[in-house]
Write a structure and sequence with these properties.
6 helices; 9 strands; globular; alpha+beta; 17% helix; 3-methyladenine DNA Glycosylase, Chain A; nine-stranded antiparallel β-sheet
Length: 214
């Protein structure tokens, strides 16, 4: 079945408050599904619906960057909640996370896939995939994967690390447009070797824009 984006109205966006992220990453993951990640590029608005995320549980999670304790590189993970933690992986792409838990306690959510909603032409250009909007298979490749979505929205560590994602004033923020997914699935996290058995990957069931096998 071809990918069909859900309805979206940028006028209905309400920024998620900091309290939303001041919780266990597993709860944040479930409730982030269906929310909207927004990037402002000058006069343009780029937006994608969150369809796949993973929870990382802090110092007690061997797969988490916080497992080593507080360092200059990972300090964003230790609070305050609602801030972007960006890291570079495999020498070629960035990954976006949002900090969770009360300040001083580490935890985060990794964004794995978005459903493109607005600014698709700009995303195509950033990804080198012009014409994606006319090709459903290519459209799904725009933001299906952590590195792809970061590239599509121009997310880098230098530009966005420690950025507050909780306010409409930011050029990168998370918002609610009243969309609610019908069903959420959980699976093991992807692409890790430590604590790989934990069911901490959350996705919208049946959504064609999730990464990998759906």
């Amino acid at each position: 079945m071809p990918a069909q984006p859900t309805a979206f109205d940028s006028a209905r966006l309400d920024a998620l408050p900091r309290e939303f992220f001041n919780r266990d990453p597993r709860r944040v993951c479930r409730e982030l599904l269906g929310k909207v990640l927004v990037r402002r590029e000058q006069s343009k608005l780029l937006a994608g619906r969150v369809v796949e995320v993973e929870a990382y549980m802090g110092v007690n999670d061997p797969a988490a960057h916080a497992a080593a304790g507080l360092t200059p590189r990972n300090r964003v993970l230790f609070g305050p909640p609602g801030h972007a933690y960006i890291y570079f992986i495999y020498g070629n792409h960035y990954c976006l996370n949002v900090s969770c838990m009360p300040e001083g306690k580490a935890g985060c959510v990794l964004f794995r896939a978005l459903e493109p909603l607005a600014g698709i032409a700009e995303m195509e250009k950033a990804r080198g995939l012009e014409g994606a909007a006319a090709n459903q298979r290519v459209l799904r490749l725009l933001t299906s994967g952590p590195g792809r979505l970061a590239e599509a929205l121009g997310i880098t560590r230098a530009r966005d690390n420690d950025k507050d994602l909780t306010g409409l004033h930011s050029d990168l923020f998370l918002a609610d447009d009243a969309y609610r997914p019908r069903r959420v699935l959980t699976t093991a996290r992807v692409g890790i070797t430590k604590a790989a058995e934990r069911s901490l990957r959350y996705l919208i069931a049946g959504n064609e824009f999730v990464s990998g096998k759906r």
